[in-house]
Specification:
By secondary structure, this protein is an alpha+beta fold. The chain contains 24 helices and 20 strands. The strands form six sheets. The chain has a five-stranded mixed beta sheet, sandwiched between helices.
Length: 676
């Protein structure tokens, strides 16, 4: 009873946001005082209401998992214990201690750069940002509980003497480039995680210089300070996950080295709080703590059977790997990124001129980062956060790869225009679906199907000038007619007639079929009405769609007939957008919280996280389309009768209505002596 009264008198104790999580330099902070101020300053706001919705969902999730846990029998637990033990043995066998990774994290980077530019700020509590949002705070300000991602008005309440300095990304990019020049001396292929942190594989340089990892880390930190005037912290470990954790131990201006020894790694990781592990955030931490009582990595190992009973196998594997101190030891293949983004938070405004100005700045920043890594993107996503903390995302897939700030701004402006008027507090741009080829062009040596199709003169209607006699694989002569009828966005409609089949390449350019692509007009503008077309195909029944999902393609509908006797395959092929609409529908939220493709669970209120998740699957779909993209075709029965009545049974069998869904591919190619 006294506990309930205490909780009702102190509601802030159960209010946990990103602002109340400790960062480096906040060890001596009065956490209850900070919690109380954050609670009182946030209460009644849209953000507070959104956090309450999230908190309510988490509590319900906890109750559901507790109920699920109570239903587990001894036999169930024994089974999952065997599964976990087997997986643990497999993971241990894959442990790699041959590499030495170093993680560098600049100390309060933005604030340190501003102090370097204005020495009078030294020793004063200072934050980079404004009253709406803080990008970072120096260590003097962190002593008061001020931290990054905190609204400035709350920070000012925590620290009345706080000095605000406006954001200047020109300076931050300049000093980031200086640090990266130092990184290249130690690892030419270092991984830049952000402007102020990077991962370096120092395995080889330690061997070349016959130096310890501790010596290399100290030397690198010294070089950075001499080259920039800024301090950094470093962590050295056998893998990337542990190196990241180690770099935070002796902040600021320090380092920590974890030896490449299994016993040392297991000892280090056993007492580590689970929140220190990358990928375990507030929600997962709450689930593990409240349902299973897990607070440290060692406790995850002890209760590993329950992890596999309550979580998906992939999540459980991730938990188990982290608890054993396992992580990636190899750099990402090709070091290619899946996406790159840039965003800005600002005071809520509905001024369109200001919004377009901020969008231009974001476009410039994104373009600069893409050019540094030689990337060209094709899918552009605009992220918006309204004044009421509603998060929206809009995406467009372009017909060519782009990288320039002008192109990015051009397409981003069209996305933004469709949403206005609107009061916003955050905007961001993300580019994905990357290619390292020349912008706007594919490989010039790569031939496509159209290179080999016999295309006649569109202006000539005479059969003699636009037809060719071809022979199929069975020896049957076929008349090929390939008149170009019209163009749409560079696509050609090609009709090829032969025997009793007609082949038509759909006149719509395949790039224009993506479900989020803008329907641009010839003058380069797009109307708000056409910005995001909703494709439908009323001719497809739910049964057809379900069957297509189960069997994974158009083949599933080959023998399905509608009430009028029309083939469903033809309906799809005549309307290719319907197929993409079906593909898009494959991704949905089961019971409004579980991903239909991978089983990942996110509530409806987690708008931003759900959009990131859907974008991930969308990018996967685009990459699959790009890897095996083929012209969409329509195969229709012709009224023409066979020219010869003396066909053999084998020929008739090949061209029968049942088996005649395919025609020999050499029908569509001209004869040539060139070797391909």
């Amino acid at each position: 009873m006294s506990k309930e009264i205490d909780e009702s008198d102190r509601p802030w104790q159960s209010y946990h946001t990103v602002y109340t999580n400790a960062k480096a330099g906040m060890d001596g902070v009065d956490k209850e005082k900070v919690q109380k101020i954050v609670y009182e300053m946030s209460k009644g706001s849209k953000y507070f209401e959104n956090e309450e919705r999230k908190d309510a969902y988490i509590k319900q999730k906890i109750e559901n998992m507790r109920a699920q846990c109570e239903k587990l029998t001894e036999m169930d637990i024994s089974h999952y214990q065997m599964v976990a033990d087997k997986r643990m043995v497999e993971l241990e066998a894959a442990r790699d201690l041959s590499k030495t990774w170093l993680h560098v994290d600049m100390d309060a980077f933005y604030a340190a750069v501003e102090t370097l530019a204005d020495p009078s700020l030294k020793g004063k509590p200072m934050a980079v940002g404004g009253m709406s949002m803080i990008s970072t705070a120096n260590y003097e300000a962190r002593k008061f509980g001020v931290r990054a991602a905190m609204p400035g008005f709350i920070a000012r309440k925590l620290c009345p003497e706080l000095v605000f300095v406006p954001v200047d990304f020109t300076k931050y990019n300049y000093y980031s480039d200086l640090t990266r020049k130092v990184f290249q001396k130690y690892d030419h292929n270092f991984i830049a995680a952000s402007l102020d942190e990077a991962y370096l594989d120092i395995t080889e340089i330690c061997k070349e210089r016959s130096a310890s990892s501790e010596e290399i880390a100290g030397e690198l930190r010294k070089d950075i300070y001499e080259g920039t005037g800024l301090t950094c912290s470093a962590g050295v470990a056998p893998n990337l996950l542990l190196a990241k954790v180690c770099s935070d131990i002796n902040k600021p201006n320090g380092q920590f080295v974890l030896p490449n020894d299994r016993t040392a790694v297991r000892t280090f990781i056993s007492s580590l709080p689970i929140r220190k592990i990358g990928g375990i955030g507030k929600v997962t931490e709450s689930l593990l703590r409240e349902v299973l009582g897990i607070k440290t990595c060692d406790e995850m190992l002890v209760k590993r059977a329950f992890l596999y009973a309550l979580f998906s196998s992939s999540s459980s594997d991730s938990f188990l790997s982290a608890a054993m101190g396992l992580g990636k030891t190899d750099a990402p293949e090709g070091r290619l990124r899946k996406s790159m983004s840039s965003e800005r938070t600002f005071s809520a405004t509905g001024d369109e001129a200001k919004l377009y100005e901020k969008l231009a700045n974001i476009s410039e920043t994104l373009s600069t980062e893409m050019q540094k890594e030689g990337l060209y993107g094709r899918t552009l996503t605009l992220k918006l956060k309204t004044a009421s903390f509603e998060v929206r995302s809009r995406a467009v897939t372009l017909p060519k790869f782009i990288y320039s700030s002008e192109d990015i701004l051009n397409h981003a402006s069209k996305l933004l225009k469709a949403e206005l008027p609107l009061s916003l507090r955050l905007m961001g741009l993300r580019m994905s679906h990357f290619s390292d080829c020349e912008a706007g062009n594919a490989d010039p040596l790569q031939k496509t199907l159209k290179n080999f199709v016999i295309v006649g003169d569109a202006s000539t209607k005479a059969m003699s000038s636009s037809s060719s006699v071809r022979t199929d694989m069975g020896g049957n002569q076929l008349m090929v007619d390939a008149d170009v009828d019209h163009h749409i966005d560079g696509g050609e409609k090609i009709s090829i007639s032969g025997s009793d089949y007609t082949y038509e390449e759909n006149s719509m350019n395949t790039n224009s079929l993506h479900h989020l692509e803008l329907d641009y007009q010839k003058d380069g503008a797009a109307s708000d009405k056409d910005a995001y077309p909703a494709y439908r195909n009323d001719s497809l029944s739910e049964v057809d769609i379900t069957q297509l999902r189960e069997d994974g393609g158009v083949e599933a509908l080959r023998d399905v007939q509608d009430v009028n006797g029309e083939n469903k395959e033809e309906n799809i092929m005549e309307n290719p957008t319907a197929l993409l609409s079906i593909q898009e529908e494959q991704f949905y939220w089961i019971d409004d919280y579980k991903c239909s493709l991978c089983g990942y669970e996110l509530p409806q209120s987690f708008v931003e996280e759900r959009q990131e998740h859907s974008d991930y699957h969308f990018a996967e779909m685009l990459q699959k389309e790009e890897s095996h993209q083929t012209p969409r075709t329509v195969l229709q029965r012709s009224n023409q009768k066979p020219s010869s009545s003396g066909e053999t049974k084998s020929k008739k069998r090949k061209m029968s209505a049942k088996d005649g869904k395919h025609i020999p591919i050499d029908l569509f190619f001209s004869k040539t002596n060139q070797n391909f």
